[in-house]
## 1
Amino acid sequence: MGKKSSSISPALAALTSAAMALPGISSNVKAAVAANEPKLSLAYTRYDEDSIPSNDALSTAGDRDRYDIDVAQIQFLYPLSDKWQITTGFVYDDMSGSSPWFIQPTDTLTATGDPLVVMSGATIDDTRYDFSIGAEYFGEKFTIAPSIGYSTEKDYKAISGALEVEYEFPSKATSLRGGIAVSFDEIDPTQEPGEIRVNNEDKENYAIFGGVTQVINKHTILQTTLGISYFDGFLSDPYKQVWLPTGNLPDSRPGDRTQYTFATRLRRYSELLAAALHVDYRFYYDDWNVRSHTLDLGLHKVTDSGWAFDTSIRYYTQTQADFYEPFYRAPRADGEYSSDYRLSPYGSVSLRLGLSETIGDWTVKLAAERYISDKSYSVQSVDVENPALLDFTQFTFGVDYSF
Amino acid sequence: MKNIFYIILISIVASACTTVNPWERGILAKTEMAWEPDPLMGQLQEHVYFSKEGSNGGYGAGGGGCGCN
């Protein structure tokens, strides 16, 4: 297999780069032809959730530490020919910590006051194994990419599949892309004495998306995508409860959910900064009445000496689900309950930094992210903040090797 | 309503486009101009946001769920 461009002149590298772009714009989405050499990527990530602040948790509720997760990722890309390549992936998650169980008011007799988190009693330990394999075919006009995946952990299994197709117009300035995805998940919660939890539930997901990619000028490219995703089955969290004056009830959500997304991504190269500006925006809406906006702004710079630097800031805000309350003062007629912070109104900001260096066939990568969420970051006014809102930090170390 | 918005957006974008010859696309092919310059890290980010936020999806086909809570 050939070596990387570190051994060729800058002029030849520029010509090679332009030649690779000749087939059109698919090269910006995926390579327009299969990779010319196998590539192995390894990464280790340490993910740490902040503990629940003491004034937001019931003082007698035990451990306020949330999840810490060690994540190992392996990906191997292998070109079979100039038309075909396969990518296999493996992810190992090792999770440990406590999770918010339910939320109760400071005054339980009158069901008034501030919400306080009660955490799951014992530390939860679990491991997740995720296997995936995908193929990509690069035709004259079409790129076709089928993939399948399997994820398993102590109480959860998921098998998924997807097919993506991209068609490039003869002008090579516009391409249409679309795809379908399915997932079949099985939930078998760990049972605890004294707790009533479901047994052997399942859920299904069917998704479809379509979009267009357009070269705007020689410095700018834009992609927009519309998507619909339908979930059916057990969509509740079997380990969460909600508080009512008459006693706790299990988290109980509707049996189906339809999600709609509009997403657009812009890449603009600045000659002044010799760097690429990334702008990603997504609008999301679902029939639980959750609406969200996500804006991600990034700057990516690669130097001639092989260093790459990227930084980005991401803003996220969502509204609450129809049936969400931090705690309930009375039973609901529809029987739907959840105090999960993920269905509460809030906003979040995260900052990411990444640095990598490529020397010959090796690339060494470091990255860090700090994520904080708060009711004050929401675009809408939030009366009562869910006290289990998440803050986390993660660090990643990775290595790529091209054969 | 969304379809109308989409059509209008495409029209605006298309009208703003200039012809870019194949030999002028070197910049568009740069690594830093990719939708996801580092697929492995992008995959991890998507999984974290999928697990920890109330909404997900948007840019393509996703994988299966998980018991992450």
## 2
Amino acid sequence: MSQLALEERVLVLTPTGADARISVRVLRENGFLAQSFPSMEALCEASRYGVGALLIAEEALTSSDLSRLSALMASQPSWSDFAVVMVTSGAATTQYTAKVFSSLMACGNITLIERPFRLITLVSAMQGALRARRRQYQVRALLSQHENDQQELRAHTAELERRVAERTAKLSEMVSELEAFSYTVSHDLRAPLRGIQGYAHFLLEDGADRIDETTRDYVRHIQASAARLDALVRDVLAYSRVSRSEMSFHAIDLEMLVQQIVAENPTFRMPHAEINLERPLSPVRGHAPSLSQCIANLLGNAIKFVEPGLLPRVTVRTESVGEEHTRVWFEDNGIGIDPDLQGKIFGMFERGHPDRTFDGTGIGLAIVKKAVLRMRGDVGVFSTPGQGSRFWIQLPRA
Amino acid sequence: MTNEGTILLVEDNSDDVFFMRRAFKAAEISNPLQVVSDGSQAIQYFRGLGKFADREAHPLPVLVLLDLKMPIRDGHEVLEWMRLRKQFRTSVVIVLTTSQEMSDVKRAYRLGANSYLVKPSSPPELVEQVRAIKRYWLDQNLFTQSVAALI
């Protein structure tokens, strides 16, 4: 029997009597696939392969059959609710049968047909039961389709997630390879540079009385070039450090930090420069080593880009921006920056004064920007050529 | 109380070795300077193997100047090797490297470095650094070996 046929079956419980056998015959004659079973146990076993509907004579049910039947009805999946057509004796409903019916009705779909009944009543009840059953099969098909769709969707999602994870892993591997590469290159570049600087130094020191002024000048040029390249490599390393080092944020006493930076750099003090702190400076929140690097770079620039002969003066002050930020200003008396270049100077290798009058690697401000952005802040500049520059960095308030 | 013990320089770059010798002279350090050119040789030296078997010619150092980036076995490995051995657990090791990477600094201290110095790029700065090493580590610092000698 095909699955379809198995699911169209009317399972008839016929333990005794001709009555039940007649029912089977009548059902078959009316086109139903009726199968009779001598016991409730056999019927339950057969029902595992498919049930269209059940036909049971009330008097055929023992109390253990009854619990088997209610268990069978209760154990249906959510889409299933097969009909149990029960032929009753027609005698006055006893207390017992009333209890039987009410307990069965709580478990599922019970239709009672009282004897004597016309055959058409049974046939129409069975037809109704099977029609309803076919609808249930449709629901089952839809549910299973839905489940398949869901599974496909889940599989698809999992596949996408796997691909994203794979690509992320590949990307971060590439990034760390690149970082390792740039670090190694920078590091390996510095070793021969130390060689050049060292031997040039010794050439001047040891050969002072053997080489003429022109040669000495050449050697000084070698030294200057080596020093420039060394500064460049150091800045690239510093940039890579602020780009990838782990940053933890703490409250930073800005006043103390600036004073410390000034103390560590003789060029930030008289007679080279005058740095004024407009006290008090508000504390900020950030990564102290990175902020220290930023401030040193900004002060260094402020002092470097000044008309020759003029004492560089820098004012450092803070102001509140909204509820959550503090802006730190660095205002200088330098040569200022061309308005066209102001937007570009924070880019890598961009220089506000490309004419070589002023030395620089073009990385200092890129380091500042990178570090400040990583500290969830921002950076900018206002400047008029000839009237100094006002650089600012904005950081979360401490 | 100046320590006169041997100093071992572990350095693969011969230029740096040359600069260090000159800086030692300029800083007037009279301690004997022994040089090995990679981590593996440093360990051979400590174990007194091969050409380092003669302890008269190759005495155990009071102070080790250790480069990090070296072929075969790097400075971190040498440090680890030393600190796992009772004999070298209390030796003074100064890391002297070009690396300013926080990961290198942390690892060196974790493995038991006593100090971490970055190589300067010009000879005058190197002389300054070596003078500072002399003033602190040789003139003032107390070594376990010197304590043993006093007892």
